[in-house]
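Quick one, tokens below. Sequence please?
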């Protein structure tokens, strides 16, 4: 049986601050699986944990608990320089965050893949004036057709961003923090279904009046 492209198992990430008693200031907890090639849309307010989730999936951030399997291989047990052969994070600001190296690289596994199986696009900039949108959407679709899993994270501030998510994505995720500052993930098969959730409606504001399947 072929392993799912992505399996997130009991994943936990905690950030603590304060002295001398360090208290949890943010926590992400999630378990989910995506077995087949797809384009997954991700939305959520700043600070909801979207970039943290992407960094955990690519192995650029060390989880507090749980594991992330990309095509059956634990990304955090793979040599640091080879993790982008499993999952690649395209960050808007092109920042590469340092992460704690818990073991020498030679003690870790070699990547089983020569090219990334999961591609995570973190708030790419879409300019409606230069034709860039069509190029990028075609690129996402080509990756999916090539058997890859694509995550597209957008912070909608224009109707065109919702149009993009509705047009190209097969599944949707909304991330938000609850009263205990724990990041929660909400899943839906269509953008329209996701937008019927009260937390999503509140997040989108005026854009929530738009109607999608």
């Amino acid at each position: 049986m072929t392993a799912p492209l992505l399996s997130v198992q009991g994943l936990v990430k905690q950030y603590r601050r304060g002295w001398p008693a360090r208290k949890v200031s943010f926590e992400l907890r999630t378990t989910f699986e995506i077995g087949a090639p797809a384009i997954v849309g991700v939305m959520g307010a700043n600070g909801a944990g979207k970039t943290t989730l992407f960094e955990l999936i690519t192995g650029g951030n060390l989880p507090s608990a749980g594991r992330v399997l990309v095509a059956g291989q634990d990304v955090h047990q793979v040599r640091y320089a080879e993790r982008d052969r499993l999952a690649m994070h395209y960050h808007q600001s092109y920042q590469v965050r340092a992460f704690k190296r818990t073991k020498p690289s030679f003690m870790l596994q070699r990547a089983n893949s020569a090219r990334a199986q999961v591609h995570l696009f973190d708030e790419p900039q879409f300019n409606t004036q230069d034709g860039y949108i069509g190029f990028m959407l075609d690129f996402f679709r080509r990756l999916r057709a090539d058997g890859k899993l694509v995550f597209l994270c957008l912070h909608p501030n224009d109707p065109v961003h919702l149009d993009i998510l509705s047009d190209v994505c097969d599944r949707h995720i909304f991330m938000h923090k609850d009263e205990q500052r724990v990041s929660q993930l909400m899943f839906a098969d269509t953008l329209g279904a996701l937008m019927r959730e009260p937390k999503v409606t509140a997040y989108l504001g005026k854009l929530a009046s738009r109607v999608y399947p």
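The chain has five helices and ten strands. Residues 178 and 184 are 7 Å apart (CA to CA).
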